[in-house]
Amino acid sequence: MRCGDFRETYREDMAIFETRFARGLLAAFLVALAFAPAFASYFWMDVLNRILIAVIAATGLNILTGFTGQISLGNAAFLAVGAYSTAFLAGRLDLPFPVVIPAAGLVTAGVGMIFGIPSLRLKGLYLAVATLAAHFVIEFTASHWDSVTGGVNGISVPAARIGSFTISGDRHLYFLLLPLAAVLLLFAKNLFRTKTGKAFVAIRDQDISAEVMGVNVFKYKLLSFGVSSFYVGVAGSLLAYQAQIISPENFPISVAIDQLGMIIIGGMGSILGSIFGAVFITLLPEVLRLVTGALSDTWPRLVDLFAPLRTGMFGLAIVLFLLFEPDGMAARWHTIRNYWKLYPFSY
Fold first, then answer.
1. Residue 88 DSSP code
2. d(CA 233, CA 86)
3. CA distance 128 to 133
4. Which DSSP symbol is given to 38?
5. Terminus-to-terminus CA distance in the chain, angstroms?
6. Which helix (H) or strand (E) holds 49?
7. What is the DSSP letter of 65?
8. DSSP string covering 246-290, please?
9. Which of 60, 117, 214, 266 has the most other CB atoms within 10 Å of its CB?
């Protein structure tokens, strides 16, 4: 019986899922998710769709911040670029969603790389402020470019379609979101097994040393902004298809803060952490809403306190994770797995 790490070939060493049991468990989990619409209510289908969109967006932010070390507060703005690109391509040009979604991602990647140019000279808090400026620039553009974005009144997005088949409603949209999220997560996991991904990590750990070793720091920083923004743009496109009507109010700065919280709580520099964080932050307000609703008969004023309670719990969760689990939920899972020798669950 194997105990611990036991690899005999490079193929085994490079495998994402180290055991057949882990691969089988993942397959069973995906099958269970595929059957979720048969049992979930309309409310929980909406929650599941929002979780999948958040997973894609958080993974994009983690590529930039967690793996490359470039702090960004521009995720809400890049979500907006992806969403408005979708509205234009699908609504004005009448393109099908297999073309619209990657095209919206590429448009967002281009915008992200433009705002990533200052990353050559700026680091840390200064870079965060530069990406925050991107948020206000894009928010102003979305509010005043009425002919394209609809201005403050917003713009409608037609349902996703391919040929004569239309994907409408949360249950149908779920079967678009689930495989797309799985593919993007697999790509992100494999990205950091390549030369490009290792260059990202080298820049995060010590950019000067990486440059001395021959890494083109500026090139890979820009590429990191591009890949990250592509993910966020795809998430924005899917958000537009789900919401069907978008306006600048859909993309406040709090969205960027929420997604930063996702990777802090889930674990920076971890694809699994992006999943954990997105699930936690998306479910937190729903759990609070259910609790406050259940207690509303006993304490009627509790419903009025929901908004500040949500904000307070969000802030408290981040503080507690920074104090007691700074590496996030993914690191805690690895600790539990290693302590209890759950090696069949290795991935």
1. I
2. 9
3. 9
4. G
5. 18
6. helix 42-61
7. I
8. E-GGGS-HHHHHHHHHHHHHH-TT-HHHHHHHHHHHHHHHHHHHH
9. 60
Residue reference for tokens 């306006």: 247
**Nearest of 32, 121, 114, 25 to residue 74 by alpha carbon:** 114
Tokens in use for 213? 């070793």
Dihedral sign (CA 100, 76, 138, 185): negative
**Which pLDDT band, with edges at 50, 70 and 90, does 26 fall under?**
confident
Residues 269 and 330 sit within 8 Å (Cβ to Cβ): no
DSSP string, 142-186: HHH-HHHH-GGG-EE-PPEEETTEEE-HHHHHHHHHHHHHHHHHH
pLDDT in tens, 188-229: 999 998 899 999 999 999 888 888 888 999 899 999 999 999
Separation of alpha carbons 178 and 34, rounded Å: 8
> What is the per-residue pLDDT across 102-153, written as a single tens digit (0 to 9) for each?
999 999 999 999 988 887 787 878 888 888 888 999 999 999 888 888 888 8
User: Of 307, 216, 248, whose CA–CA distance to 84 is shortest?
Assistant: 248
**Spatial CB neighbours of 277, under 8 Å, sequence gap ≥ 6:** 58, 261, 262, 263, 264, 265, 266, 267, 328, 329
Tell me which of 179 and 21 has the higher pLDDT: 179
SS3 content of the chain, % helix, strand, coil (to 5): 75, 5, 20
Helical (H) or strand (E) element with 245: strand 245-246
Q: Which amino acid is at 184?
A: L
140 phi and psi, to 5 degrees? -65, -45
- Rounded Cα distance between 275 and 178, Å, is 13
Whether the model pTM is above 0.85: yes
CA 280 to CA 286: how far, in whole Å? 10
Written as six digits, the tokens of 101 are 């979604």
